[in-house]
Amino acid sequence: MSSGIGANIRRERDRLGWSQARLAREICRAAGVVGEPVGRQEVSRWETGKRTPREWLPFLAAALAVPVDALTTPLVPAEPPLPTLADFLPAEDPLEPLSARTGVRVGVAQVADLQQRVHGLRLADDFLAGGDLMRPALRELRTVVRTFREQSYTESVGRQLLVQIGELAQIAGWITSDAGQHAEAERIYRVGLSAATQAEDRTLAANLAGSLAYQLSNTGRELEGLDLARAALDGAGSAAPPKARALYLDRVAWAHTKAGGTENAQQAMRTLGEASEALSADSEGIESPAYLYWVDAGELQVMESRVYTELRRPLRAVPLLRDVLGRYDATHTRELALYLSWLAVAYADANEPEEAAATAERVLTLSADVASERTAERVRVVLTRLAEYADVPEVRAVLDSAA
């Protein structure tokens, strides 16, 4: 019976657009209890069927404004429900504050300073690879989580701290993933997702989930990546800024592409079109979070060309990539090497081995001193693809040089 109750709780919570943390607060308010004896983790356990509300059931129904029967009567869905972001939260709360807090009280000034440091890490990632940035990023994240759990602050400052933990976890997860530490990156992303969810920042939660979905899609967990990318888009909602929706749609398109198959390929193409439409709604008067500063038409064009390359449609991929690379900032060495790697593969698919070899040589040169596992993996992909043309002198020279 508990699993049926869980599905009903989740359905009614989704109807109201509440997070699990919000529902927990409303239950305590309905019960008239002091403190928070019911927290987000308890609601999660009810929804997943690990526990039954029992004595909390009347207050749960009151909070949701439904009869108790609406929660206890099992419903047979027409098809399994799609995952939501709540399904990807950590089983236990890694951010639960300690009962006894000590230390200096955290104020707005400290949060503003943290915000600057987080953005500084984000900008550094444009020029440095994950292997160079991972240690300082993880050190910063550990310090901020410890501050949130151990020190005191107002409710408003606490929410701002949660937002900064979420933003820091996103960039730290990205950096750690770039360094090839995928298990650690996943753990970091999930901590950030917990923070953003508790702060009720749906756009940030979707950004974290989309980043993790991107990693899953690229590391052999394509179906999980597709589920999470969809959940991120749905979780962000229609009120998300245009830049955010464009990014989340881009990640869904990539997840469909990596999942493979004709239907997924067609869906990827449709979603790319939706991403372009979403970005076209952006304007100077629309405020977007600072972490979306890099999302623009050029980045969407890069993703479109990568999708075309993955789908083995080089006649579409090559012109797009050449256009983007013709105006790309050469100081962003890692990204330049990555994008050139897609162009090299597209040339090979177009039966242009000489052009593929020349482009691959640039990739090898650029990536030689870049501490990025993503770049190293793309080099391996390019060399494997070039090996099919090993009898072409230009290709042979590149393969011998790499060896």
Brief digest:
This protein is mainly α and 403 residues long.
What is the element layout, followed by pairings?
Layout: H1 2-16, H2 20-31, H3 40-47, H4 57-64, H5 68-72, H6 108-124, H7 130-150, H8 155-178, H9 182-198, H10 202-218, H11 222-236, H12 242-259, H13 262-280, H14 297-310, H15 314-325, H16 333-349, H17 353-367, H18 373-386, H19 393-402
Strand composition percent: under 5%
Terminal CA distance reads 62 Å
The helix-strand sequence is HHHHHHHHHHHHHHHHHHH
Q: How would you sum up the global shape?
A: globular
Q: How does the helix and strand content classify structurally?
A: mainly alpha
Radius of gyration: 23 Å
Mean pLDDT: 90
Q: What's the main sheet like? A: none
Unreliable runs:
none
Percent helix, as a range, is 55-70%
Report the count of strand segments: 0
The number of helical elements comes to 19
Keywords:
mainly alpha; 19 helices
Protein described:
The chain has 403 residues and is an all-alpha fold. The mean pLDDT is 90.
